[in-house]
Amino acid sequence: MTGYRQVLALPGMASLLGVSLLARTAITADVMALTMYIVLGLHMTYAAAGGVAAALTAGVALGGPLLGRMIDRRGLRTVLLATVVLQVVFWLSVPILPYGILLGAAFAAGLLMVPAQSATRQAITAMTTATQRRAAFALESVQGELSYIVGPAVVILCAAALSPGVVAWGVGAAIALGGAGIALLNPPVRAANEADAGAAGRPPRREWLGAGMIAVLTMALGATTLLSGVDLAIVATLRAAGQVSWAAGVVAVFGVASVAGGLIYGALSRPLPTWLLLGLLGLVTIPAGLAHDWPWLCVAMVGTGLLTAPTLSTVADAVSRLAPASVRGEAIGLQSSALSAGFALGSPLVGVAIDLSVPAGGFAAAGLAGLAAALTGCLLSRRSLARTRPALSDLGDAVASDREPRAAALSPAAARRSAP
């Protein structure tokens, strides 16, 4: 646990993770809050609620790179304050907007959602050294798991006791407070030795959005496709067993196992490749379909949970390493978009598999999606390494040819002393 103590001892890190947890917990609950409002407040169908949720999710997916690019150019605090103002306007307006306008407003709110997740990841990259980063990103992944466990559950409990409109206001207030808190802290998004990265200009996308980065983004998409599908497969399995009331308990076990896995992985002395972790995640998910009641499903979810946070943390670490400092915001925004797209893709993909077969087919489809993304990521990563090695070889030859004339101009003894 020494690595975690070192990370939390960094100036501003503990307060950043605390404030960011508030914002991320509220953001993970926003879809549930809108669903509760539309179904219970407007007395409309779940399909109508799904339309608003889809609009919000699409906005978040498209807005990630846009906000990241704005952070690269304008700075973190400016972007945070602008998005906080928009979120305040949107959530205060939710109870008075007719459904048609709410649909468009939800897309705009998603497009300019407070970038708490990407801001935290950029700050972690800037505030930590290479040796501290894996533990820091493990804590960030654990933070994400806690937000998914707490956020929607709190909204459901509050919706049973309060007006759905009041719950929506509360979620909006928490998002705004979290974003304003991060803006007040104003953590650095570039390390001290990267302060002049913006002055050097933005490198063309083809220089950093190559095979290696595409591999990581593909694996991010595959990871959340798997996770979104697993949630649906859990519900389908328990519904077939007549135990759907236990779904929350199974999901809680899944989340706790993920938190434990993230903490264990961050304390390890050596990292594992992202494609290997994602491949293992896919492999342990497929046999979960053999469980037919809630106790065995809890057992099956422990294996999947233990690999979830480690996989997501290695994705974040890889993006931070591959992205140049001057475009890191855009790259992390692309990562957020890939994660959001995977969450949107997983449920319908696994839903089709369940409809065409049995609930166990949902786990199989989710696991195979993860395996396919891991294989694709592995192949693209190897391709990226294969391209890098010849370039390094050419650089070595150029350095050697530059040294030879200088060595020839020296005396034999001096030449020997100057040789590497």
TrEMBL record:
Which InterPro entries does its entry note?
MFS (IPR011701), MFS_trans_sf (IPR036259)
Segments spanning the bilayer are 35-63, 75-93, 168-187, 208-238, 244-265, 272-288, 360-380
**Keyword match Zinc-finger:** no
Task: Write out the ranges of the annotated region (Disordered).
Answer: 397-420
What Gene3D superfamilies does the database record attribute to this sequence?
Answer: MFS general substrate transporter like domains
Q: Which UniProt keywords apply?
A: Membrane, Transmembrane, Transmembrane helix
* Feature: compositional bias, Low complexity: 407-420
Protein name from the UniProt record: MFS transporter
Look up and give the organism this protein is from: Dactylosporangium darangshiense
